[in-house]
Amino acid sequence: MARQKPKKISKEQSILTNSINQAEQNRLDGNINVDFNFANIMDKFSFEAKGFTATHYKKFCEAIQKISSQVWDDVHNSEKHTRIGSEYLDISLLKSQSFQNHVHEFTSKKKFLVLRYYGDLPMIGVRKGNTFVLLGLEAKYDDMYPHGRKK
């Protein structure tokens, strides 16, 4: 049986393959910017929630702008009580069983991701690739889960 010659690929195919490989490496390295998905916010913990003010909304917009200019490695390495402040918490800490169920719809993991948007107030979601899928916002400290310290 004769051995087949490797297929010659065009310069364009080579560039595309290299771009795909670089994008995959960036994804694995955490060297990609954070994207956001807002389509799955639970109503109970959305902008219409009791206690959500214009200031909350303004601070949320500022946080989204800042976080989306960061790469995932920087977000994950930020201290939990800094301007971005990220941490993973166990889903069982969520006070609302319906919200626990909502989070479980988006991850098989036992943890959710918290990013700070206004002081210590969190936005809660899960990471899917380079996207933070936002599932809820806390309008009042301790509404969604116990923070472990008094405000």
Descriptive report:
The protein contains 4 helices and 5 strands. It is of the alpha+beta class and 151 residues long. The chain has one domain. A 5-stranded mixed beta sheet has the order 1-5-4-3-2. Strand 3 (111-118) and strand 4 form a beta hairpin.
How would a textbook summarize the main sheet? 5 strands, mixed
Largest sheet, spatial ordering of strands: 1-5-4-3-2
Please compute the radius of gyration using only Cα atoms: 20 Å
- Alpha-beta content class: alpha+beta
Relative helix content: 25-40%
DSSP helical segment count: 4
Short description:
The protein has helices spanning about 10-30, 55-70, 70-75, 95-105, and strands at about 35, 85-90, 110-120, 120-130, 130-135.
Write the SSE topology.
Blueprint: H1 11-29, E1 35-37, H2 54-68, H3 72-77, E2 86-90, H4 97-104, E3 111-118, E4 121-128, E5 131-137
Parallel strand pairs: 1-5
Antiparallel strand pairs: 2-3, 3-4, 4-5
Q: What tags apply to this protein structure?
A:
single chain, alpha+beta, five-stranded mixed β-sheet, 5 strands, elongated
